[in-house]
Every structure is written in structure tokens, then in C-alpha cells.
Amino acid sequence: MLRQELFWLRLKGKSGKISVNYNGFAGTSGPAKRLKLLNATDYATLMNERSVRDGGAKKYADPASFGNGTNWQDAIFNDSAFRYTHELSISGGGEKSTFYASFGIQDQEGIVATDISNYTKKNFRLNSTHKISDYFTFGQTFGYTHQKTKGIGNTNSEFGGPLSSAINLDPITPLVETNPALNTTGYYANAGIIRDANGNPYGISPVVQQEMTNPLGYIQTRLGQFEWSDDFVGNAYLEANITPHLKFRTTLGGKLAYWGKEGFTPMFYLNPNMKADRNNFSQIITDLLHGLLKIFYIF
Q1: Are 130 and 139 in contact (CB under 8 A)?
Q2: Which is nearest to 151 in space by CA: 122, 129, 172, 120?
Q3: Tens digits of per-residue pLDDT, 122-139?
Q4: Contact at 8 Å (CB) between 148 and 120?
Q5: What is the DSSP string of 150-170?
Q6: Phi and psi for 276 in degrees, rounded to 5?
Q7: Is 66 helix (H, G, I), strand (E, B) or coil?
Q8: What is the reported pTM?
Q9: How does 247-276 read in b/e, with b if 16+ C-beta sit within 10 Å?
């Protein structure tokens, strides 16, 4: 990141006509592959075989009635996550002054759980030089960058998250429980049940629990989570031509950076092991100020 900042700060305008340049890119991203997992019918059949082998009864009377069931990977993957970059620069000047200015924006949707997986970056650069007289030259560089990141948290570990849950949850559990006779009883009678826009609860597996939860319900608990940063970096110099072979320059530079995170987590009940009985809001802000003064001779 620092090398990139220094690169932009070194860019300078040239005397002559004003030059305008644009550089842009747009595209999509998607998962390279999906794991081949059992559908609901095959899963129920396998669970029946295991239960009978262990001396028990069949758990599911008619495995075929479940059909394909839920494909949890389809529920969390975005096959066309959009991303783009735009950069506009303007440069020019005359005999006394030159300048270079650029404006950029970058945005990238996440491949997994796009609602809570996104990266945005905006930046601005302004560099200029001014010949005050035959003896003195003044110059400055300034850059500002803002970044905002939404992350999906514990993405792929034994502690849950959308990826881990998508390959561990059973395909029999529905994405959303739409049966009125079921969606207000059992697990769904608990306070904090996460529901969709139609008031139906996101399915809760009675088989796979611990940290594995319905990824769509998990996404709803993290909509208010993001991290951000604001970085200001720049310097100014005054150069004096003492003689044709001796120059004197004074440079003053500095960097001011802020970064932090903000999070709102609502009261939720995703399964007996993953729940919160109250709303929670947190905010963290830190800053860094760094300055540098240089005085040197150029022979």
C-alpha cells in the first residue's frame, strides 16, 4: 500500500495543453467450483442405513419425498459478483506552474454472501509545482484514500460462518420454513428468530447444530458490520537555486490516518447454541499522525 501511495505522489503534470485520461475496468467473479454433496433423498437414505446398522429404526419413512432438498452452496454463492474500477486524471500547466490530479473509485462484490461481503475504495490525488521566481520553486503532493470493507466473519472454520455451514448443514432443512403449522412452534417459538421479508423464519436444522447455522439467517445478523479507513498523506517543499551547482530544499511531509470498525448485531436465535438475547452496537476508532521535516542540499 505504501509503495502505491508513493507512486501516485511522484506523478507530476507537464507544461502544455491540459490532458485528460480515463482508465476503467468492469467484470464479474464467481466460485471456481462447488463441492459435490448429497441431495435430500440420498442424505435421508444414508441416515436410515446408518440408523438400522446401529440397531435403531429408520429416521425417515419416505426419503424420496424430500426430493433434492436444499442446496446450501447455491444459497450463498454469487456466480456473477460485479466489480469495477474507474480512474480519471487531469494534468497540464504552463511555464510557471504544472499540476496533476486524479480521482478513482473501486468496488467489488464478494463471491460468498454478497449482502455482507463487499469492498469499496475511493481516492484523490493532487500534485503541483510552482516556479515563484528565478530562484524559488514551490511544490506539493496530496493524497486521500477512503476504504470500506464488509466481511462475512469466520468464513470457513469449525466455528461456523456461511462457507462452513453450507457444506455441513443437512439438505433436508429448508432455507425458509413456510409451513404455518411449523414456523411458530419448536425452535421457531423462541424470541429472536430471524425471519425473511414475508415473516417466515429461516430454517433451523434439528440434525446439524453447534456453530453451523442457516447462512441466510446468519447474513441478517451481520448487515450492520463493516470496517473503514481514511488516509491523508502529503508533503510540501520549497527549493532555492543558490547557484547553478547548488540547490537548497526544505520538505515538510505528514500522514494522518483513521481506521475503525462499526457493528450492530440484533437479538437473534439461529439455533440453541448460536443466539443473542439483546441488541448490541459497537464502534472503534483509532488514529495515527506522522510528520517529517527534511532540510538538505542538492549539488
Answers
A1: yes
A2: 120
A3: 999 999 999 998 889 999
A4: yes
A5: E--SS-SBTTB-HHHHHHHS-
A6: -140, 130
A7: helix
A8: 0.80
A9: eeeeeebebeeeeebeeebbebbbbeebee
